[in-house]
Amino acid sequence: MNANTHPDLADLRAAFLVDDAGESALGWPGVYAFEAEHGIVLPEPYRTFVAEITDGSFSGPPDFGLLGVAEMPDDWGDDRPVRELAAPFPLTEAWLWEEDSRPSEEIEPLLDAVFDHGSIVLGTDGCGMYWHLVVTGPHRGHIWNISGEGAMPFGAEFGHTTGASGFVGWVRHWAAGKPWFDAA
């Protein structure tokens, strides 16, 4: 795929202000190696974006920059379980575990799966609010906001926002200067 002829990739390039002729990109061999190591295939157009445009950027969403595909936020913590990208992301609808009445011994394993299965972390808006791109499971290709209180998918069809779902919709929403949760 050529970033110069694909309209979504042109919008992504513009949003992230990448002007290094792809030098900050992971490259296709790097993408293939990452995918093989984790037993996944990254969703398009994010896959081509990290291969040909950039693998992380201080410009663009989220507030503290877009992480490289293999990076984790500084505040992620060293005591988390091993991330299993090939394990399916477990959610298909929003979940506020802060309001869940089940006992903590039932919730804890589910929380580990939400944070560590089937997604890559795109970055953070601070205060423990992480943006994930789901790479396996029924919500593959969707963006989720996961925080200490709960998790919700990004996209107009899920409520909370007027933005389109997926990586391109998420980036376009940010580039338009709209708040993340702008639905009335």
What does this entry look like structurally?
- The protein has 184 residues and is of the alpha+beta class.
- It has one domain: SMI1/KNR4-like.
- The protein is built from five helices and four strands; from the N terminus they run ααααββββα.
- It has helices spanning 7-16, 28-38, 46-53, 104-116, 166-175, and strands at residues 119-124, 130-134, 143-146, 151-153.
- Strands 1-2-3-4 form a four-stranded antiparallel beta sheet.
- The longest helix has 13 residues, at 104-116.
- The protein is globular.
- The model has no long low-confidence stretch (mean pLDDT 91).
Count of spatially separate domains: 1
Element pattern in H and E: HHHHEEEEH
The number of helical elements comes to 5
Note the overall shape: globular
Low-confidence stretches: none
Largest sheet: 4 strands, antiparallel
CATH topology: SMI1/KNR4-like
Summarize the structure.
Pfam families: SMI1_KNR4. Helices cover 28% and strands 10% of the residues.
Any key phrases for this structure?
184 residues; alpha+beta; SMI1/KNR4-like; 4-stranded antiparallel beta sheet; 5 helices; 4 strands; globular
Helices and strands in order, then pairings?
Elements: H1 7-16, H2 28-38, H3 46-53, H4 104-116, E1 119-124, E2 130-134, E3 143-146, E4 151-153, H5 166-175
Antiparallel strand pairs: 1-2, 2-3, 3-4
Helix pairs in contact: 1-5, 2-3
Domain Knr4/Smi1-like: 33-146
Protein name: SMI1/KNR4 family protein SUKH-1
